[in-house]
Design brief:
Order of helices and strands: HEHEHEHEHEEE
Low-confidence stretches: none
Number of helices: 5
Largest sheet: 7 strands, mixed
Strand order of the largest sheet: 3-2-1-4-5-7-6
Helix content: 25-40%
Distance between the termini: 31 Å
Strand content: 25-35%
Structural class: alpha/beta
Oligomer: single chain
Length: 180
């Protein structure tokens, strides 16, 4: 698995071992970031970050900062390793080992806000997270923010209250881009 484009383009990324994490394919990452267009200066939140590939791709393409939220300790360690090997400093990236919904609640209380939120939960949980995410997200979105979701086409993650600007299917994966 590699970074597709930008500052770290072509550099190799590690993924957690086992089947617990399903990194977003290079094809899907390329399609998502082509659809998003320029993200220079964006503040990014990568929820259910896994290997961190999506957030790292955003940093590579000009995002100012990224927060990676991953509950699994092995996956969080892989994100830290990927960032370290790419030379991404703590001034540009933070890795938080915690629950995504808890982070959204705390980020809202702290007044944190994001330009781009990437959401790729475990497929088996995605459909059940829509309501809670729909409730928590608006408080952490800056004006004009976009939200990218990735889920299984048979049980998609549906967000209420955000406009779905684009929905594409890649095999069994559904990717949606929402705006405020």
């Amino acid at each position: 698995m590699r970074v597709i484009a930008g500052q770290y383009g072509g550099r190799r990324l590690h993924a957690p071992r086992g089947t617990g994490t399903r990194p977003t394919s290079e094809r899907v990452r390329e399609a998502v970031f082509s659809a998003l267009g320029p993200i220079d200066g964006a503040v990014v939140l990568d929820l259910f970050a896994g290997s961190g590939a999506m957030g790292i791709e955003a940093l590579s393409r000009g995002a100012e900062r990224a927060v990676f939220v991953e509950r699994d300790p092995r996956a969080a360690a892989v994100i830290r390793r990927n960032l370290e090997e790419l030379g991404v400093g703590r001034d540009r990236a933070r890795v938080l080992r915690r629950d995504a919904l808890a982070h959204l609640r705390d980020a809202s209380s702290a007044g944190d806000a994001y330009d781009l939120v990437l959401i790729d939960p475990p497929y088996r949980h995605a459909a059940g997270l829509g309501h809670e995410l729909s409730q928590a997200l608006p408080a952490v979105l800056r004006p004009g923010a976009r939200v990218v979701t990735e889920s299984d086409r048979r049980a998609p993650l549906e967000l209420d209250g955000l406009v779905c600007d684009l929905r594409r299917r890649y095999g069994d994966t559904i990717v949606s881009i929402h705006s405020t």
